Amino acid sequence: MIFTRLAAFAVVVVLGMLALALIINASLENKYDERFARLELSQDNQKKSQDSLARRVDSKPWQLHANDTVIFCKVAYPLADRVFRERLQEAVFHFRNLDGWLYDKYQKLGRYQPMIESALLAEGLPTDLEYLFVQESGLDPVIVSWAKAAGLPQFIISTARDFYLAVNSLYDERKNPIKSVKAACKYLKILYSYFDDWPLALASYNHGENAVKAKLKQQGVSDFVDLAVPKETYYYVFRIIALSYIFNRDIMDLRSWLKQMDPLPKSREEYMVIKKPTKLVNLCQDNNLDYDTFKLLNPHLNPVLSPGKYPVNKPIIIAHDNLKELNFHLIPFIPYQASPM
């Protein structure tokens, strides 16, 4: 009897000790989990703090200062002007959060920049205006906006025809990168002659010259910063200036590591006569042309060409250190002359 009671007591003691051990173990595990969680949180906060500090340091080149000056289109704009500085800063920081977009445009500038700068210089215009085409179309020669504007300069049909760019059932010359850029440069030259001020000229490119003239007269101001225009126009003008600031100062250090696209191949404008429906790829094959090169120069041409006369950018190649024009054996060419349609 006594032995049975002792055995029962021993079992109770053992069970009690096991229960106490489990409680102590659970307590230790909870404390370990809490310590580990606090350690992870501390490490996470430390990483966030380091990332935040790195981003602040990385963002320093994007910060504008009142004692600095921005050069745009050969004109110095002192950043001591608070309104100008704040609006330009907003535009610069807008692009700060678009790294991938800027990488893409920097690469595409390699393709189109030489051609655009050549067209600007031919009209006596400053090369900073090349960033208008970056802002307008993202350097996509075939893009069409919601307002039906098309090409690198984003011309609407009426403006295109004012500058002898044909838009018809056969082709849309707004998508001809070379000819449309030349037309846009002529337009910019005219706008500058109206205002003698590049921000106002850019505003009129976006908002319309008559609208800008009317607002200047109504408001009795002469400076773009003082002019009340739609927000879209303010963003447009300052983002072009911001792109010039970002790329010209290379504040992203892109030149040291990011390769640009090759420039557009050399070409000459001519007419091409098509007598029967022809696939563009077959035309290139029949004339020993590289299809990708020809399409790059002539994105305004459809994949299948209907009978008619087409303006084309005829590629030129360098052979044996001499310029040699590619000879179209099957397609007759006549000298290219622009004419309104």
From TrEMBL:
SUPFAM superfamilies linked to this entry: Lysozyme-like
List, alphabetically, the InterPro entries matched: Lysozyme-like_dom_sf, Transglycosylase_SLT_dom_1
Highest taxon above the source species: Bacteria
Q: Per the database record, which ranges form the Transglycosylase SLT domain?
A: 129-220
| Name of the protein in its database record | Transglycosylase SLT domain-containing protein
